[in-house]
Amino acid sequence: MMAMAWLRASGFLLLSLLLARPLCNHLARWLVYLLFGRRSEQQLPKGTSKQSKSNLQVIIAGFPRTGTLSLLLAMETLGFPCFHGMHLKKPTTGNLFIKAFTSGDPKCWEELLDGYAAITDFPGACGYKQLMEIFPNAKIILNIRDPNKW
């Protein structure tokens, strides 16, 4: 009787541990987004004109911490809604970026960048080769930073 109760409790604990990790990871991503991501996303400027179809015009291929936020502000000021690495804090957007980057499917990239005319920061630095093939008329900006001054 005691062995059965122990076995049942052990099985329940094992099942809980197996299910807890993915569930906790998913919930933690949403919690981080809700607590921090939405606030910082709201601080990002919104594009002046939402485009109906992704028509990427500018690919900023520099790594993060090389002035990408300044370039985002410049693009937004010039009327180019810009996709930044900060947008990846939202789990659904992050998952879509991973799908687009790993598959290289142009439809995934177009869905991700729907309404944006420029891309910068981590997504631009990682996916610039794929983006250059999908959007051959897009202008490329490579921003760099002297590593000795970091």
Automatic annotation (TrEMBL):
Q: Does the keyword 4Fe-4S apply?
A: no
Question: Which interval of the chain is the signal sequence?
Answer: 1-20
* A Pfam match: Sulfotransfer_4
Key words, A-Z: Chloroplast, Plastid, Signal
The record's section on InterPro entries has: P-loop_NTPase, Sulfotransfer_4
Q: What is this protein called?
A: Sulfotransferase
Species assigned in the record: Adiantum capillus-veneris (Maidenhair fern)
- Phylogenetic placement of the source organism: Eukaryota, Viridiplantae, Streptophyta, Embryophyta, Tracheophyta
